Amino acid sequence: MKPFPVPHALSEEEIVATIADFARASRNAIAAGFDGVELHGANGYLIQQFLSSSANQRSDAWGGSVEGRVRFALEVARAVVAEIGAEKVGIRLSPGNPLHDIFEEDLDLSYKTLVAGLAELGLVYVHVLETDGHRELTAALRGQWPHAFILNPATRRNPTGPAELALVEDGTTDLISYGALFLANPDLPARLAQNGPFNTPERSGFFGGDHRGYTDYPSLAAG
Ligand SMILES: Cc1cc2nc3c(=O)[nH]c(=O)nc-3n(C[C@H](O)[C@H](O)[C@H](O)COP(=O)(O)O)c2cc1C
After folding, report:
1. Can you tell me whether residue 28 is helix, strand or coil?
2. Is the pLDDT at 157 greater than 90, yes or no?
3. What is the CATH number of the domain that holds 104?
4. Catalytic residue among 45, 125, 178, 214
5. Is residue 52 part of a domain?
6. Residue 45 annotated in active site
7. Lesser CB count within 10 Å: N end or C end of the chain?
């Protein structure tokens, strides 16, 4: 851990400048050769801080109500879409994720309002990092989303695995995203196609500061 400044509520000017930063960063990503960008609206990063009624204590137009709290996410998405085109923009959300004591009042209404606004902007996908107990909300958001839906499903502390592919088969989602299993298996698509074997994610190495647990897993060919 390193020292960090005490956060402060952004001024209106800072909010406008930050939205412009997202747009510029997206333009730079495309110029650098990326196919598109995923806005990070999950896990307590800035966009979710605006969505959260515990982090966002504003009483101006950027907080204080569902419409206020979703406004920053929508304005960031609008600016990025205007900059690089909606077909290059997706967003990651984590409805109800309690990480770092995040609390989201009016959870269902907030995300339904947000997703409706994002659909109007024409983003290519919504990527939901699901929290345990929120499958119903996942289904509701998927039901109102007109484009591709990506799910990082809630798996009660186990890494998302091959069993979760059933969620594509049964129509819960269009695509599954993998975190820890992909980290441990750089050739994950090939392993899924042949039904394993899979290396086990080495959690003791995570956030340890060196390559261990990140880039030291054997590929099938080496195995
Ligand atoms: C080592 C490690 C680092 C991660 N870092 C981030 C991060 O920086 N930002 C983020 O939103 N999620 C991060 N995640 C969460 C993953 O994106 C994913 O949501 C989580 O691992 C659950 O999916 P899984 O069961 O497929 O692993 C990280 C996960 C792991 C294992």
Report:
1. helix
2. no
3. 3.20.20.70
4. 45
5. yes
6. yes
7. N
* 34 DSSP assignment: -
Amino acid at 186: P
* Protein residues with CB under 6 Å of any ligand 1 atom: 42-43, 129, 152, 155, 159-160, 178-181, 183, 206
List of residues 6+ apart from 96 with CB closer than 8 A: 104, 107, 131, 133, 134, 137
- Domain residues for the domain of 194 are 181-223
> What is the whole-number distance in angstroms between the Cα of residue 48 and the centre of ligand 1?
16
Query: Are residues 195 and 101 part of one domain?
Result: no
Same-domain status, 105 and 63: yes
Q: Are residues 162 and 209 in the same domain?
A: no
Gap from CA of 57 to ligand 1 centroid (Å): 27
Alpha carbons within 13 A on the beta-carbon side of 58: 23
d(CA 112, CA 81): 20
* Model pTM above 0.85: yes
How large is the average pLDDT for residues 59-82?
98
Question: Buried (b) or exposed (e) across 159-177, using 16+ Cβ within 10 A?
Answer: bbbeebeebeeeebbeebb
Is there a domain that residue 95 lies in? yes
Q: Is the pLDDT of residue 13 over 70?
A: yes
Place of tokens 């289904």: 139
User: Is 38 contained in some domain?
Assistant: yes
7 is a domain residue: no
